[in-house]
Design goal:
Radius of gyration: 21 Å
Helix content: over 70%
Structural class: mainly alpha
Number of strands: 0
Distance between the termini: 71 Å
């Protein structure tokens, strides 16, 4: 997309749903996955013990997927120059909030699916244990 032309609305919507994927992926990975657990633990401590409000809030953003998605979105908008509905600064503003919203829907769905899979695994282990206990009694 060039800076002086605006994509068709259809193409803008496609870009919205596609660009939200890396926002969600990066925000989730940094704020939840094991690979970043040590830096995240440090950030969490700093967000709770920092001397100034700015210090605490800066480190907090690395522990909250919603907060972090704002910064990932800003970087992605800077890299791609993606705009939504308007060809000027308003397009960036609308695109930013829209990307954040869709990315957070993606992360919520991922959490829901992940929790459901984890619960199924726990239920399966409970049933296996009950079955084993029943067969030992017989």
């Amino acid at each position: 997309m060039t800076t002086d032309s605006l994509m068709t609305l259809h193409l803008q919507i496609i870009w919205l749903f596609i660009l939200s994927i890396p926002v969600a992926c990066i925000a989730w990975t940094v704020t939840h996955e094991e690979i970043f657990s040590e830096p995240r633990a440090y950030c969490k401590r700093q967000s709770m013990t920092g001397k100034t409000l700015l210090h605490r809030k800066f480190f907090y953003l690395f522990t909250c997927e919603y907060c972090f998605s704002f910064y990932v979105t800003a970087l992605l908008l800077f890299i791609t120059r993606y705009r939504l509905l308007f060809a000027d600064w308003r397009g960036y503003l609308i695109a930013g909030f829209s990307l954040i919203w869709i990315a957070n829907i993606y992360m919520s769905l991922f959490l829901f699916i992940r929790t459901d899979i984890k619960n199924e695994g726990i239920d399966s282990r409970i049933k296996e244990t009950e079955l084993k206990n029943c067969s030992e009694k017989i």
